[in-house]
Amino acid sequence: MAIDSLGLPDIDKMDRLNNRLLAAMPRSATTLLKPFIRQLMLPPGFVCLDAGEPIEQIYFPVSGLISQVVSTSEGEVVETAMVGREGAVGLQSAFGQRLSFTRAMVLVGGTFYAIPAEQLRLALSEEAKALVYRYVETELAEALQLAVCNAVHAGPARLARWLLQSAHRTGSELLLLTQEQISEMLGVRRTTITLLSQELQKRGAIKYSRGKITITDRQALQAAACECYGVIAGLYRLPIIGAETDSSAAAAS
Ligand SMILES: [Zn+2]
Predict the structure, then answer these.
(1) What is the CATH number of domain 3-126?
(2) Fewer CB within 10 Å: N-end or C-end of the chain?
């Protein structure tokens, strides 16, 4: 269940919102949006959007992670995209009423902003719309890269790439994730994830204990990851999205 979070920073007093996409928007747009932004604490498993349903709210992660998953008719669930503080889910509705292609579910709990889709449509100037359009294009480019990744890159390299992306997009080297969740996200058996994570632990790249993964050596993890991590990080550093000034963004380069 979502909790409207009392005690979080007062948005009206914030000069810059804690989501990179919102922070990169023209001030005129964020001024119009601020009265409609709800700050929420959302737990893992919370469904933000469901496949085939109208998009009423757009979710912008601040500290958590949203996974966009597709289920097969046999009940298998696989992640198609993950979204953290660099972006949002449901943004296609910035251009008009839309249905969600995927189920968007909280994977790592934390703080999120929710904005009614209709208010976002009203607030976006042409300049802000161009930013949103560019972000949606970047997501498409990422999806194409991941299609290649899933087809040709080996398990340990994909797991390392996925862990680096998760850390970058939550801004934390500590990830509260079970092996079961990771196996669903990568579409790999849980026993395989156990073996793969043992291998990364042997290299000193990560430490895993009871639903907690800590990146202990970022360089070792980057060495184990496929090229897709660097390629995708580069896509999101394109100038118009590039309001990245914090240390983790720099570390991704
Ligand atoms: Zn790859």
Answers:
(1) 2.60.120.10
(2) N
